[in-house]
């Protein structure tokens, strides 16, 4: 994980313009624009930590129980729209443990509670059903979301215009 300071102000549009060569080379990617914003932070950035799970949020909880140190947890839930992988209690846990944000390739629930938390969350949708808790999934491995490979240590930048994934930090 990089220890570079998280930028206090950035715009994904400006980053795309300034790093067009990285977009072409594949060092910088824009995630599919299907992700909806939740939480009080409309803009967040940090080094990536990953979880892969399907309709079982056990590994998501395990990750968020640890100190986030300004990281962004990217959860590859396989794009499932049948249950939520992050709810209000996990959002509070993420806020308390210093996570910058959570990106969920799946659903969230308890939207009113998440929106009270000082973190940024992006997810495909909200869903009232909770996930299973079987202890399944994995952490710390590269995941693929909508054709974009995301590995631990990559950087995630999210704002009102979209989500960027970069091989390296784009700020100094």
Overview of the structural elements:
- The longest helix has 9 residues, at 88-96.
- By secondary structure, the chain is of the alpha/beta class.
- The strands form two sheets. Strands 1, 2, 3, 4, 5, 6, 7, 8, 11 and 12 form a ten-stranded mixed beta sheet that branches.
- It is built from five helices and twelve strands.
- It starts with 11 loop residues before the first helix and ends in a 6-residue tail after the last strand.
- It has one domain (28-166): Ribonuclease E inhibitor RraA/RraA-like (Glucose Oxidase, domain 1, 3-Layer(bba) Sandwich), CATH 3.50.30.40.
- The radius of gyration is 15 Å and the shape is globular.
Summarize the structure.
The chain has helices at residues 12-18, 20-25, 58-64, 88-96, 111-114; strands spanning 28-30, 36-38, 44-52, 72-76, 84-86, 101-108, 120-126, 138-139, 143-145, 148-150, 155-159, 162-166. With 172 residues, the chain is of the alpha/beta class.
Low-confidence stretches: none
Estimate the strand proportion.
25-35%
Total helical elements: 5
Name the CATH superfamily classification. Answer: Ribonuclease E inhibitor RraA/RraA-like
Query: Number of DSSP strands?
Result: 12
What is the CATH third-level topology name?
Answer: Glucose Oxidase, domain 1
What coarse outline follows from CA principal-axis ratios? globular
Cα(first) to Cα(last) distance is 16 Å
Largest sheet: 10 strands, mixed
Give the helix/strand class.
alpha/beta
**N-to-C order of helices and strands:** HHEEEHEEHEHEEEEEE
In the CATH scheme, the class would be Alpha Beta
Q: What proportion of the residues is helical, as a percent range?
A: 10-25%
Number of self-contained structural domains: 1
The CATH architecture name reads 3-Layer(bba) Sandwich
Rg, Cα atoms, Å = 15 Å
Nearest-integer average pLDDT: 94
């Amino acid at each position: 994980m990089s220890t570079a300071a998280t930028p206090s102000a950035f715009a994904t549009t400006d980053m795309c313009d300034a790093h067009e060569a990285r977009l072409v080379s594949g060092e910088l990617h824009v995630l599919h624009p299907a992700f909806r914003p939740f939480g009080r932070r409309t803009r967040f950035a940090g080094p990536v930590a990953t979880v892969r799970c399907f309709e079982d949020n056990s590994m998501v909880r395990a990750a968020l129980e640890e100190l986030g140190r300004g990281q962004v947890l990217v959860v590859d839930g396989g794009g499932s729209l049948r249950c939520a992988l992050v709810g209000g209690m996990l959002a509070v846990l993420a806020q308390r443990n210093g996570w910058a944000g959570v990106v969920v390739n799946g659903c969230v629930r308890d939207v009113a509670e998440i929106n009270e938390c000082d973190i940024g969350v992006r997810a495909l949708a909200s869903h009232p059903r909770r996930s299973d808790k079987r202890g399944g999934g994995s952490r710390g491995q590269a995941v693929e979301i909508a054709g974009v490979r995301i590995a631990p240590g990559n950087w995630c930048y999210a704002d009102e215009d979209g989500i960027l994934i970069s091989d390296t930090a784009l700020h100094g």
